[in-house]
Specification:
The complex is a heterotrimer of chains A (478), B (233) and C (477). Chain A has 17 helices and two strands. Chain A has 478 residues and is mostly helical. The longest helix of chain A is centred in the N-terminal third of the chain and has 44 residues. Helix content of chain C is 70%, strand content 2%. A two-stranded antiparallel sheet of chain C has the order 1-2. The relative contact order of chain C is 0.13. The chains are: A mainly alpha (478), B alpha/beta (233), C mainly alpha (477). Chains in contact: A-B, A-C.
Chain lengths: 478, 233, 477
């Protein structure tokens, strides 16, 4: 134990006397600071716009004046995807999913206004976010810090001296690993404090309920990820004969894990599971609406059968005698059929999304970078699951809105009249303002089981590997 | 103290060391002479348990080094041909670090004194080892051996590349350790140093110890003749 | 050629061929290149298929309309169709025109912004802004990660290959201990390093050319007139960009540090140019020019007249619109016919007119962002290169912004065509179908000059880096 502490101390002192490490560490701290601050600024900007617009649109809805409920349903309202406070840490998909959704009768509007379209083409190179620094750049710092962990001792001969002191490779490896962990913790601690402060300051009322838990999980996930990188680097250094070899192996792995593989996997998933074009998608929905999902029950037939059913049920001979406005019921019925058609086709799209993203989940079993990328977006509330979850809630809300309008029309207006009837503010107020409830952490963890498993498996694997190699190792080959 | 019994090391078909028998007692300095590749370093590395013997045992105080790796290492100190320390640490810090690893803790003043006793110029004690000459690094090695209170000293050509003065100082330190009862095994090319400092001398050739005698029994001239005779066969 | 240089080259070749790892890396990058070409082409082919389908729909729609003129009208449906074909009050919001920006043959090699922005729109005479903001279906994850096309392989991966081949240019000699032997030769060390640099430049660039031309040839015949200049520009771009990276490796070698230091520095430069600089510029521009398209959300709202039966209200709307478009105004009696259709047409057009300012503001801010970032392109040759390749393949942002402008003009043509008939109560005749609006986008004159400028910047950076390295090698060897 005492030996371990001494080794840790020595490694830290040596690392701190290394100019390159100091400079790179300083740059990382600076980048993290900028990323955090800029993330906070853009979060605040977006959040202000969104709350303001949301309130504005709500006012517009309430003050739209007296009109026929169906016109109101067309007038509709807007819903904005709230920025989660943790999005200042990981922007995730936020720039590429839509931000606002227009809710109106008969039509679903999805994916409008991708923020990436507001940017210059440079946005495709990626934005500076804290997660970029942690996921991609810090591992590089780790490589620079530790590729020489053993090779320098080996090349300069101090390794022999160390072992002749009766130190085991186990103690030595763990000393080095823990020393690098300590250095990283020191580099990252101002960032952690800053993140806590910002998320505390920027925490608006409708923030995620389990934000603290999410923060803890984020820290854990990144902690494990960086630990994996450190132990991998030390292990490679232990196995390599020269520093040059170790560096070459580590850099190749870094490029493969953080740049090449994520891109290839996603690209592959795109060609394996193709999406229809928007035109095909809309066309299919239109066809479904007009000719029925099975292609054999056109709208007129559906209306006729509804009419027949209602007339039988109320034992009257004409729709004029029904105790409600048949137009309203007909409209709601048509709307519900549209929902069925939409759910069918959008379900297929979602299925394709799911399959595409599933591939990256499976790939994360090989590459912890992918696990931490997916988990980080999930905990920050900027992932695909949360996005679809949001869309679902919005769609439910839209349907609720239309149902309220159509029911009001059925109850309060007469058959054959349209402009004669106008509803007022009382009705508009019946529709509550939309407020988004993000998925709970439990739900997210369920979704990302593979990613979690990957982190566990890799940690276990590395612990075993390091211990195995330590026992087998001799300072001289032969 | 140091005992090799039928100690053998083979690399495939090549025999680096063949059935070596040798013992070094307290207060003795055993010098191994021989050409490059005669098996001197192999012997030292076997005692250090850096490599596994193919056959036979190397033991320190009757303990097999492969079976009691930890205990035997507690007793020994090792100085390789080119003692490399951490260039970014000062001599004092290096000493403190290695002592600490061996479980010995000293006050700073004691370490400074040890370094001075080992002949390191006082103004270098607080300088980084990157600036040291080879002789200075060897002195830190000696200080380390003293600090560890090692009863066994393993030296692999410690004086090669040192200037005569530094080499002489190094011998003085070895003799001093000898007085304290340390058993020393030293591989060297330096016949003069072996005769001058060693109590016993062994000549190795192609993995075998072919001659072994007390250094007092031969004159320097005889030693040189003997050595060259073996080398030429 | 100097004899010593011949010897140098011969031995460099021997050691190159014997280094299995290097050969393996070349093979791997070749594979990635081929995959990138395939993947880019399949993306663009999918777009071509959509375009084809869309064009076909439009053709069918209009040939139906045209056919309805010469047939004896029998069924009710046929009559309805003829109404849509001939009566502007039905036609103006039903006739759909497609504005398409067809992919350049080489778009498959540099997809650029083609996956993010729409490349086709169906426009009717209705409010333009209402029709403009629908997006193409795409998995956001794919958009975030970006395309695996040939430009990615060239801009991102090849520099890594160059680093892997050249980080030990000088230092490996030092570390192997052979430096002293070299130094006593008649040839100067700088010369030896340069010969090696040229050797690896030749090898890596030939590989890149091989892949590039494979892509160019399979994507579209390079000797067709419209492809020849792009193909040449592409080749020049690759040469310029690779020169920069080799010059950088030369500069790093001239510092005469250890191999590890060189590798670290080179990778740090790669990171700086490809990730850190663009990321920081993005952050700066976002905070400097705050902008959110959410402000435009309101434009997509489908609103109508408050009360379509209120004649006074409808007339008021029409008069307001006619004040903007005096050329459509006629006598009062003209208005009374088909007043509802006119009212609706006027209403949606007014909406466009009124929201134009908001849209202009938005577009201006996007333009600000673009021009601000492009002012800093020189900071990173990689960003510059990506932009150049996208410009060559006509997939750059600028092309899409021009597309937006062309869309607005086209929409103007469409409304002119229908509204002049609607408001003057003239039917649409069969012969009118021959001069219905056609979408066109004018070629900009400055495309090649900005490609040239981009290339110039890269070459300048390469030259400066190289001469700095040359100078550093000159002082004390």
């Amino acid at each position: 134990m005492q030996q371990l502490l001494i080794i840790i101390k020595k490694e830290i002192i040596i690392a701190l006397r290394e100019k390159l490490v100091l400079v790179l560490g300083g740059i990382m701290v600076l980048l993290l600071g900028i990323a955090l601050y800029a993330g906070f600024l853009s979060y605040q900007q977006q959040q202000t716009i969104i709350t303001q617009k949301q309130a504005e649109k709500r006012e517009e809805w309430l003050h739209q004046g007296d009109k026929h409920p169906h016109i109101a349903a067309h007038y509709g309202t807007f819903v904005f995807k709230p920025k989660t406070v943790l999005s200042l840490f990981d922007f995730g998909l936020d720039a590429f999913t839509g931000t606002s959704i227009y809710l109106e009768a008969h039509h679903q509007h999805e994916f409008m206004f991708r923020p990436a379209q507001d940017h210059s083409s440079m946005i495709r190179f990626g934005e500076l976010s804290a997660t970029l620094v942690l996921k991609v750049l810090i591992p590089l710092l780790i490589i620079f810090l530790s590729f020489n962990a053993y090779t320098r001792e080996r090349e300069s001969g101090t390794l022999k001296l160390l072992i002749s002191q009766g130190i085991s490779f186990g103690t030595l490896s763990w000393g080095k690993i823990l020393a690098y962990c300590t250095i990283l913790t020191i580099i990252l601690s101002p960032f952690l404090i800053g993140l806590l402060l910002f998320s505390w300051v920027g925490n608006p009322s409708q923030a995620m309920p389990d934000e603290t838990l999410r923060l803890v999980l984020l820290t854990l996930a990144y902690g494990v990820y960086l630990f994996l990188f450190i132990s991998f680097s030390v292990w490679v250094s232990l196995r390599s004969s020269t520093g040059r070899n170790a560096l070459l192996i580590l850099l190749s792995s870094w490029i493969f894990l953080t740049i090449l593989m994520p891109k290839t996997v996603v690209n592959l998933s795109k060609s394996l599971y193709t999406l229809p074009s928007m035109r095909e998608f809309k066309e299919a929905i239109e066809q479904g609406k007009v000719y029925g999902l099975d292609g054999k029950t056109p709208r007129s037939e559906r209306i006729a059968s509804l009419e027949k059913r209602l007339l039988e049920e109320y034992k009257v001979d004409s729709v004029h005698q029904l105790p409600f406005n048949f137009e309203g019921v007909k409209m709601q019925d048509g709307e519900e059929y549209t929902h069925k058609v939409y759910d069918h086709h959008f379900g297929k799209i979602k299925e394709t999304f799911h399959r595409q993203n599933r591939l990256s989940s499976f790939a994360s079993l090989i590459n912890p970078f992918l696990s931490v990328q997916n988990l980080s977006m999930a905990f920050s509330g900027t992932d695909m699951y949360t996005f679809l979850h949001f869309e679902e809630q919005v769609e439910t809300y839209r349907r609720e809105m239309i149902r309220k309008m159509n029911n009001d029309m059925a109850e309060n207006s007469k058959y054959g009249e349209f402009f004669e009837y106008a509803a007022g503010r009382d009705l508009w107020e019946e529709l509550e303002d939309f407020s988004y409830q993000p998925p709970t952490v439990g739900e997210l963890l369920q979704q990302y089981r593979l990613e979690l498993a990957s982190l566990f498996i890799w940690t276990a694997l590395f612990l075993l590997l390091i211990n195995y190699t330590n026992r087998k190792m001799k300072p001289l080959h032969g | 103290m140091l005992q090799a019994t039928n100690l053998t090391k083979k690399y495939g078909n090549f025999t680096a060391l063949n059935s070596l028998n040798l013992s070094v007692n307290e207060g003795e300095i055993f010098c191994l002479l021989g050409a490059n590749g005669a098996g001197k370093s192999t012997t030292i590395n076997l005692f250090l348990n850096f490599i596994e013997p193919t056959d036979g045992t190397a033991s320190i105080q009757s303990m097999d080094v492969t079976k009691h790796a930890k205990e035997t290492k507690q007793m020994l100190s090792y100085i390789p041909e080119n003692l490399m320390l951490y260039p970014n640490l000062t001599g004092l810090e290096n000493l403190d670090f290695f002592c600490g690893l061996g479980g010995k803790s000293y006050e700073k003043e004691q370490l400074v004194e040890l370094l001075q006793q080992s002949g390191l110029q006082p103004d270098f004690i607080h300088k980084r080892v990157g600036k040291y000459s080879k002789g200075m690094r060897q002195k830190v090695g000696i200080a380390l051996a003293r600090a560890r209170q090692a009863s066994v000293l393993l030296l692999d050509e410690p004086t090669s590349g040192l200037d005569p003065k530094a080499s002489n100082e190094f011998s003085e330190l070895l003799l001093d350790m000898k007085e304290k009862g340390v058993a020393t095994l030293m591989a060297t090319h330096d016949l003069f140093r072996a005769k001058d400092t060693g109590t016993h001398i062994g000549i190795m050739k192609e993995g075998e110890l072919i001659e072994q005698f007390a250094s007092a029994d031969v004159s320097f001239q005889d030693l040189e003749k003997l050595y060259l005779k073996h080398m030429h066969n | 050629m100097d004899k010593s240089i011949k010897t140098l080259l011969r031995y460099e070749w021997t050691s190159f061929v014997r280094n299995k790892f290097q050969l393996f890396m070349l093979a791997v990058i070749m594979l990635f290149g081929v995959y990138a070409i395939y993947s880019g082409q399949s993306e663009i082919n999918a777009q071509r298929k959509t375009i084809q389908a869309v064009t076909q729909i439009e053709q069918e729609e209009f040939s139906q309309y045209q056919a309805s003129f010469d047939e004896e009208l029998r069924s009710l449906e046929e009559e309805e169709l003829h109404d849509i074909a001939s009566r502007p009050s039905f036609a103006w919001f039903r006739h759909g025109y497609h504005a398409i920006i067809p992919p350049h043959d080489y778009a498959a090699l540099a997809i650029g912004q083609r996956d993010l922005f729409r490349y086709y729109y169906r426009l009717t005479g209705m409010s333009l802004h209402y029709q403009l903001f629908e997006n193409e279906l795409a998995n956001p994850v794919n958009l975030m990660v970006g395309n695996f096309d040939l430009s990615f392989v060239l801009v991102y991966l090849f520099p890594l290959l160059i680093i892997a081949f050249c980080y030990g240019l000088y230092s490996s000699e030092k570390e192997n201990g052979t430096l002293a032997l070299l130094q006593i030769q008649a040839v100067s060390i700088r010369r030896i390093i340069l010969v090696r640099l040229v050797f690896y430049f030749a090898i890596i660039t030939s590989l890149a050319m091989l892949i590039s031309w494979l892509g160019l040839i399979t994507s579209g015949p390079p000797f067709k007139t419209e492809n020849l200049v792009p193909a040449m520009a592409w080749t020049a771009g690759v040469l310029a960009y690779f020169s920069f990276w080799f010059a950088l490796m030369f500069l790093i070698a001239s510092l005469r540090k250890s191999s590890s230091f060189n590798a670290i520095t080179a990778i740090a430069c790669w990171l700086l140019f490809l990730i850190v600089i663009p990321a920081i510029l993005n952050v700066v521009v976002t905070t400097k020019y705050p902008l959110s398209s959410t402000a435009l959300a309101g434009l997509t709202r489908r609103t109508g007249l408050e009360d379509e039966n209120d004649e006074a209200e409808v007339r008021e709307v029409i008069m307001e619109y006619l004040a903007h478009k005096p050329q459509l105004a006629g006598s009062d009696s003209l208005i009374n016919d088909n007043m509802m259709a006119k009212g609706y047409a006027a209403f949606t057009s007014l909406k466009d007119i009124n929201s134009q300012k908001l849209v202009d503001q938005y577009n201006e801010q996007v333009a600000n962002r673009t021009s601000w970032t492009s002012r800093y392109h020189w900071l990173s040759p990689a960003v510059n290169m990506q932009e150049v390749l996208a410009q060559i393949a006509e997939t750059d942002l600028h092309t899409f912004l021009r597309f937006q402008d062309a869309l607005a003009d086209f929409h103007g043509d469409i409304t002119d065509f229908y509204f002049s008939r609607l408001f003057w109560n003239r039917p649409i005749l069969l012969e009118d179908y021959h001069n219905r609006p056609v979408f066109q986008m004018t070629e900009t004159s400055n495309r090649w000059s900005s490609v040239g400028l981009g290339l110039g910047k890269i070459l300048l950076a390469a030259a400066l880096t190289f001469f700095l390295g040359f100078y550093l090698f000159m002082i004390d060897v």
